[in-house]
């Protein structure tokens, strides 16, 4: 039997489900779907590969994903690796039927992925996984990235930005809803750059909600705060089925660091975007990607980012200690000591925990809507984790009273 090991983003998680479907008939095979967002992510993939060799000697080990696409020869040369499959190939069933020349160091590399005007988008409903999909399904609508942040190598693994046609998004979403899915999460490498002709992400959201009135909950994955379009602001204010939760790719709260990252927003613009979102949707929850210890970050510059988290009252920061990514401009900049990066990351997370505790306390005594998941767990409309005292059918949307709260989430009946 085959086993798929997944690293990295939500998009990789979705793609691993498709790979698992394509490879279900392969005997004694391990597939590593790698991540390249940081050097640490690659190290984790290599450690998993070594463990797989120890645990299952004799198994065929196939490596795919961003790290394998960026440097296929390096991965093909690792002990135990029998094949390397690029991002361009991994979602096509025929890629798994016979050995690929890519695994022998003669593959197409990025050529096909970058040349294709549109990528092969898989059916988002994995066969045989209907129960899990009823709770929440990821719908991949955009791939690749046209930007050049100094810390990021993902465009080399995912290619340029491409988007799924609006009609295809609606068709795939309708299939998910008809199969029983109650929440769909639109996802992409750079979701805010979604384009289908004149249609942008906000237009897609409004078209999707109009075309499928029976979809109870629509959620968005990470957004670039510099690219939120006017129609999306309107949808946030006017569409109650668009969940009151935004996760923004902020990365830093100091203008000098943002400039050195080559981000497209300033500190003030990020704060303004958060304030506008909360004005349009009172009570909205905010998440933010943040990098601690970016090269050249002084104590004073870090303090600006810490103050940003406090000023913006971000309950759900997703914090990464900076990790050098060879081949990026940031990797050549003066580095912050790793121990200091970790210490700064811990301080940002602690600030987020304090803010989350206060945010969650505001729900005590209220009744909230929760989508039930496995293990008597769930999430509210705001994506707040909930510990449920009673069992509910997986995927059911239920209203429950909030009995207690802490930094980790809510406890509800």
Notes on the protein architecture:
The protein has helices at residues 10-22, 39-55, 66-70, 72-76, 111-115, 130-135, 154-158, 166-178, 201-211, 230-238, 255-261, 267-280, 299-312, 338-361; strands at 2-6, 29-34, 60-65, 81-84, 137-143, 162-163, 183-188, 195-196, 199-200, 217-220, 245-251, 285-292, 316-321, 367-372, 377-380, 385-388, 397-406, 409-412. α2 (39-55) links the parallel β2 (29-34) and β3 (60-65). The protein is an alpha/beta fold and 413 residues long. The strands form five sheets. The chain has a five-stranded mixed barrel. A four-stranded parallel sheet has the order 1-2-3-4, with helices on both faces. 36% of the residues lie in helices and 23% in strands. The chain has three domains: 2-115, 3-Layer(aba) Sandwich (Rossmann fold), CATH 3.40.50.12160; 130-358, tm_1862 like domain (pyruvate-formate lyase- activating enzyme), CATH 3.80.30.20; 367-412. The chain starts with a strand and ends with a strand. α8 crosses α9 (201-211), α9 packs parallel to α10 (230-238) and α13 (299-312) packs parallel to α14.
Please outline the major beta sheet.
5 strands, mixed, barrel
CATH architecture of the largest domain: Alpha-Beta Horseshoe
Could you tell me how far the N terminus lies from the C terminus, measured between alpha carbons in angstroms? 41 Å
CATH superfamily grouping of the largest domain: tm_1862 like domain
Rounded mean pLDDT is: 89
The DSSP helix count reads: 14
